[in-house]
Amino acid sequence: MKKDADNIIIVKSKSFALEIIQIYSYLCDTKKEYVLSKQMLRSGTSIGANVKEAVRAQSKADFHAKMNIALKEASETEYWLELLTESKIIVKEQADQLLFRCRELLRMLTSIVKNSVA
Questions:
Q1: CATH number at residue 26
Q2: In terms of residue numbers, what domain contains 23?
Q3: N or C: which end of the chain has fewer CB within 10 A?
Q4: What is the C-alpha to C-alpha distance for residues 84 and 106, in angstroms, rounded to an integer?
């Protein structure tokens, strides 16, 4: 069985989740922003959780469904990051790297979903 460290989508989604946790802490502690940041935390960490579930799926249909959920969560996370940036709660420079990584996950997950048949 392939190790998690060898699976790029697991590695990238977990790394992204850790960054989301860091920005969430910053937003709560420094900016006193709790509502949008909590939404971002929930969806941003859910990506990796669903990817992890997908690699241990019981069937191809289960794999496809979990990866599709991860894709939806990545899309939602992109939305929260855009809102936080456009509302000037976080500065563009803070969001740029996160948005880049989120969009990278979106491209990867889109490809996985399109190429996996339920």
A1: 1.20.1440.60
A2: 4-115
A3: N
A4: 19
54-86 pLDDT per residue, tens = 999 999 999 999 999 999 999 999 999 999 999
Which H or E run includes 8?
Answer: helix 8-26
Query: What does pTM read for this prediction?
Result: 0.94
CA 62 to CA 66: how far, in whole Å?
A: 6
User: Given 3-state DSSP classes, what are the helix, strand and coil percentages for the chain, each rounded to the nearest 5?
Assistant: 85, 0, 15
Contact call for residues 95 and 63 (beta carbons, < 8 A): no
For the chain, the domain total comes to: 1
